Amino acid sequence: MAHKLSIQNGIAEVVCGSNQTPWHNLGTVVAGLMTAKEALEKARLAWEVAGMPVTVNGNVLPFPNADKRGETWQGITRQDTGACLGIMRGQYECIQNAQAFQFFDNLIGQGEAVYDTAGALRGGKQVWLLAKIDGIKKINGDDHKTYGLMITSHDGSYALQVQYVVERVVCANTLSIALSGATNTCKVRHTRNWKNGEAEAARVLNLGEHYFKQVQISLEGMNEQMLNPDQMAEFTNLLLPARNGDDDKASTRTKNIRSEIAGLFERGAGNLGKSRWDAFQAVSDYADHNMTIRGENSTRLESSLQGAAATMKQNAYDILTNEDIMGNLMARKFRPVPVGKIEPTADFGIEPHNPFLALLNNKN
């Protein structure tokens, strides 16, 4: 699948720190971490955007049902290339890359060199900045790295959002799950008063230690709850139900995905095939590395953040931490699948190729 990196004049608009191999062998490499200003410059993201009137036959195109202010459409245009990145309504406020980086730095770095990667996708329509947060956290005996991520857009596909991400080092699975009482994401709309969102973003990010602690407690609790292979199979049936409600008539694709996740339960990196933790990591492994991402406007970056992969991982977490659901699941009589009817659709040893994971690991 295409990497979707923004390429201008033959150079990728991306930078990778710590002397790591650039994403897809494209972009700029630097030693160590960077300040937000350095990341902006070295990723070649210092360009600006502006809203330009959208005209038809020389007439400015009005926004449908516009109020008395005479609101019109505007084309969000890169000032260095003249490329139109998106068509937005008149009240949409451009947030410059430098402003977004400064917004994030006020929350995370405050002028310090803590940023690992930065870049743009699709000609500059989406832009991100990734910060390393000090410390390795042990969860169920495995090392986990913690990151702060900022992502914004110039085509309306994303608000300016900041969030925490946890990565399991042994298999590069990423976790950015919603926990009860432990928020990890804040979104700021592209409006005139967008800077007012800094207080809420700061509140969310100041809860980071609480969030990471709750993640640790929750996931370690999963490791104490055992699942046998039959129960794991029932879990995959619940996670991926047949569309028509008749499990005997589930599609071949659904059965293949269930089989692949069940295999990762035992054979995924770091998994033992014994607990809810292994079940959750099997789903994360599949979602991050092997899931088919459909649609030419989709990338694994977006899927991992708030698309199909993120939804699958969140659904798995919600099921595995719900004692009523799990109690009913474990009490079910297992319905075995006829031998020979299901074949895995991917090699379980496949090298991870999730672009978002590449942001974290600087892998090709």
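[next item in queue]
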Amino acid sequence: MKMEKDLFYRSFEIDQRQIDVENRTIELSISSENPVTRFFGNEIILHSEDSIDFSGFNSALYNHNPEKIIGRFINPRVEKKRAYATLVFDNDELGETAMQKVISGSLKGASIGYSVKEFRELQPGEKWRGFEGPTFISTKTKIHEASLTPIAADSTVGIGRRTLEGINIIKSKTEDKTMTKEEVQAIINESIGKLNIPKAEDIATAVRAMLTEDAKPKMKIDTAVFVDLLGRAGAVSMELKAKVADMAGDGNTEIEILRAITEATSPPPDTTDKGDIGDGLKKKQTQRATITTFKGVEDKDFFASLSSPGISLS
């Protein structure tokens, strides 16, 4: 069996409860996303259907010795961010010995050998797919072999003769000084989309509406006075009530609105000569009084003034 020279190794415990003596099999969890400390920093293996390569993964070894094959692996797969495989013990002396040692607890550790084709480097504080830097994430991992060992193998085995040469390392775009204008604009557009920032035309429409609203006259009377004026105008006619409402909205003062109500309920002044009434006196129409305030005026007096314009309320 030909083995790769430069492999990383990870260890795991054998769960004896997963052994099937009758079928000579044992179910193994051979890899996970747990971080392991390497000479270059923390290492995490991404577990997804397209990130783990099982091609060529077949023989089960004893203590990473390619000359001691104890069985074969079937059904390698990734489930719930872990890699699994079923070890089928060979029906020979070496396979039977290995199975009996697992049953007795003499063989209780296992170790996988794998190579990394691509790392994604996360800077301190940088987040990606639920991971946070600083760390190296293997996004393309090839599992070559798995072995049963008397003691779970040291995860640093083989590191001394291993370098990162030949491994594609993807750095954060924020650290890439050779980004094109198109890449920068794409990042900006993506960020704006996530922030849900309104479009420029929507902002302009909102500003115009605010300016139009600010340009409108503001009511110069409080709510209580406004209600009172509406009530008095409504006692005369709905048209007058609508006019009072418009005047208040246009910013007219209380005195101005009172004057409008008075003018609407009083006949126009007439000082024309109505003829001689004797003793050289001339009959003239009395000019109506001008109401300047309703303060202190009782309702009965107010309504009396509407029917008798000659009554002065000032």
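[queue empty]
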